[in-house]
Design a protein that fits this description.
The chain has about 140 residues and is an all-beta fold. It contains no helices and 8 strands. A hairpin with a 4-residue loop joins strand 7 and strand 8.
Length: about 140
């Protein structure tokens, strides 16, 4: 907590995406961050994703999905949401380097450990190409 009473940002989970067929590397950190309303003093928390040293796969239309399933490889299961990359065309997982973005508006923030994995999906061919477990700290 800083002197103004705002909690310090913290990483509460990480994930490393892997694919057997399409090499990829990098880490995705899940951050809990805070804002304060300067008029009311109300502190609000939000989640952001920090993509660190990302080298996305050389796969057509690669896209990330957050899933509550511990073993599922389907993107149309209950609770699965896309993790669109804001800077990329069609939200595809194509941006190289380190960047950060807010969680999707439909991110389930009521249960801090709701999501179990990130699925790497090929949109044009509608097939699973990789995944990464979400490790909570």
């Amino acid at each position: 907590t800083d002197p103004g009473g705002i909690p310090s940002p913290t990483i509460f989970a990480t994930s490393v995406i892997e694919s057997k067929d399409y090499p990829t590397s990098g880490t995705i950190n899940f951050w809990r961050r805070y804002t304060v309303d300067i008029f009311t003093g109300t502190i609000t928390s939000f989640v952001s994703f920090e993509f660190v040293n990302i080298d996305p796969p050389n796969a057509p239309g690669a896209k990330l999905y957050l899933t509550p399933s511990e073993s599922g490889k389907k993107i149309n299961d209950n609770g699965v949401i896309p993790l669109d990359i804001v800077q990329a065309d069609n939200g595809w997982y194509t941006i190289i380097g380190t960047f950060e973005q807010a969680a999707p508006s439909n991110y389930n923030d009521s249960d801090p450990q709701f999501y179990s994995r990130i699925i790497l999906w090929c949109e044009p061919f509608d097939v699973y190409i990789g995944e990464g477990d979400i490790i909570y700290t």
